[in-house]
Fold this sequence. Notes:
By secondary structure, this protein is mainly α.
Amino acid sequence: MAGTGVLYLWNLGVNGWANPFYSAAIQAASKSWEAFLFGSFDASNSITVDKPPASLWIPALAVRVFGLNSYSILVPQVLMGLAAFFLLYATVARVAGRPAGLLAGSVLALTPVATLMFRYNNPDALVVLLMTAAAYALCRALQNGKQAVWWMLAAGALLGLGFLTKQLQVLLVVPGFGLAYLLAAPIGWVRRIGHLLAAAAGLVLAAGWWVLLVELWPASARPYIGGSQHNSVLELTFGYNGLGRLSGTEDGSVGTRRTLTAGLFRLFGGGFAIQASWLLPAALILLGGTAWVLYRTRAWRIPAGRQFTGMVIAFGTWLLLTGLVFTFMRGIIHTYYTVALVPAIGALIGLGSWLLWRHRKHTGAITMLGAAVAATGFWAWYLTGRGFLQGWGGYVAMAALAGAIGLALCARRPANSRVSLILLPVAAVLAIASALAAPAAYSAATTQVAKTGAIIIAGPRPTIAHHSGFGHHPAGAPTIPGGLVQAPVPSAAAVRLLREGGDSYRWVAAAIGANNAAGYQLATGLPVMPAGGFNGTDPFPTLAQFKTMVSRGDIHYWIGGGLPEKSHGGSRTSKEINDWVSATFIPTEANGTVLYDLTATGPAR
């Protein structure tokens, strides 16, 4: 954990505001308890982010204590990574011993996408922590029948909090967790079903209170629900963040890139491969080998074997179901989503290695263990063939092959034999080092370059920030693939102009899209309204609402540009507002930023 902390904290400040969209919302939540409760983008509560607010709460509290800066936002994410490491270690160690737990935790810590996301302020860090914590609670429930109901209640509540972090994604682990408890709990069938119902109640209560509160709260007295077209959290849940992700029919979405086309081998190609697939082949091989050994030995008939079997079912279904959804979903998907697979990969590596080594005298078991080691080495060689480790992949593959052969040679020999005493430590070091060396190098490289914006990837490449040809954008606001606007870095002249008398207005400015507005809000420290929400395609505010706000003197400036032209449907009201403003008010240029003073009177331009 100390080593992981050093890796994750190293050069952390290079990420700046990381994802300015969420950093701006964290800033708002630190200033307004209403924004904290609803997850508003700005402290004046115009519109929420396109997720529930749980991922904002911990860093917002840190900002209240330590002030707004990169470290108060990102250090809590690092601590979430350390907690996830410890909980995965503790879970695997309970059923397979500390070395297996340490191996599982190390896989989690050194997978590049985990290093990326535990140094970032997207919701993925918290959702991974909560799912891992729920797996730990499940493990405790499988171990102790007397306190099982409380552990299952805790597991459900943790997943409910996960729902308040990233909505339906967290439910992908529920079928496997339920199946594991149903088949492996050390109690009678009636009590098992009762405990599962308790877990379901914990999930519904932990998630449902917020959903019910938002639905019952008068819409006129709360911020608009960002990401929805009808100001509904249920629409956000089942549409934009739910079934729309599977089908691709997400109104207001900017779509997904061609390079991320759905297909059977999506996770092994394109930008996905170097994120989380380094040990994915090994995890799948070990899952198959573990299932074969468990079936052959009927291990679930004894208490310890039953708990082990339950956790294999839980993590195995976690990996398979989540992986298949990521593989075939046709809606918005980013490569960093694969961080949700990493705890399952780490757990299956730890559990499978331990079990197959215990049964090493059987040819099938040692063969599968050796195949997992060799496959990891050769997959690393393939992935590094064109990367920054080009030329080193061959050495990793040879070390993995040597480790696999060494383990096979030691498998049938007594542990105290001269060959085993000399060869086994060498083989084990080669096997583990070859498995972790390449992902560790990519993780280290991830810490050396700035990762900022909405779409990021692990590895040595910095954030992509160039014009993609979609839309018209203000100065300093490049786009990223898919037509999203990168958060601009406002000029000193623009910030000075916005701050002048800014405290007299509810919103110091309004701009199309949250990514455009975020840069100005973070720079000025004052609320900036993101017209149209995240993508600029939500129907808030309408032109009539905006005119009313202007007539009341609520908004000082309109920031020109920022509307992406490529989207899947959604409202065009933000474009209507932009057209009305540009036809009604006189523009002022502040070092490349075009501002319209909405309080100034005079002839139209």
